[in-house]
Every structure is written in C-alpha cells, then in structure tokens.
Amino acid sequence: MFIALAIVCDEFFVPSLTVITEKLSISDDVAGATFMAAGGSAPELFTSLIGVFISHSNVGIGTIVGSAVFNILFVIGISINIV
How far is CA 20 from the centre of its chain? Predict the structure, then answer.
C-alpha cells in the first residue's frame, strides 16, 4: 500500500504541483506548505462532509474540533521540540 502511495505521489502529485507553482508564480516552499496542508486536511474535510450531508449525523463537528485540538497541541508541540 505504501509503495502504491509513493508511486502515485511521484507520478502525479509532484508533477501537478510543479505545474501549479509555475502557473501561479509562487515559490516551492509556499506551494509545498499550502498544498501539503490541504492534502493533509482533505480526509477530515471529506469525512465531515459525508457525515453532515449524507448520513446527517454530528460527526462533522467532532471531526473538526478534534482535528483542531490535535493540531494545536500535538503538531505545534512537536515542532517546538524539534527546533
């Protein structure tokens, strides 16, 4: 599974990011941070959308709040410890 993910990223994701950064004239660092953040949040977004609009449950609110708490406490904490 990880090999398939690596192949898809190398064959499709990286070349598409290259085209987007050239068309928008933005630096590689900004593009990497922006699009990787969007890619990392996409599963949570789709889980929330499916939970709210298709199954009509409250899972969307819990997903968003849980993700925000995790990002604030864990990701920033790890980032500070690495630096």
Answer: 17
Smallest Cα–Cα separation from 21: which of 34, 10, 2, 40?
A: 34
Distance CA 51, CA 57 (A): 6
Instruction: Calculate the dihedral angle through the C-alpha atoms of 42, 10, 12, 32, rounding to the nearest 10 degrees.
Output: 50
Q: Do the Cβ atoms of 48 and 59 come closer than 8 Å?
A: yes
Contact 8, 15 (CB under 8 A): no
Q: What is the pTM of this model?
A: 0.47
One digit per residue, the tens of pLDDT, for the chain of length 83 reads 778 878 887 888 888 888 988 998 988 888 877 777 777 777 777 777 787 788 877 776 776 677 777 777 777 777 676 65
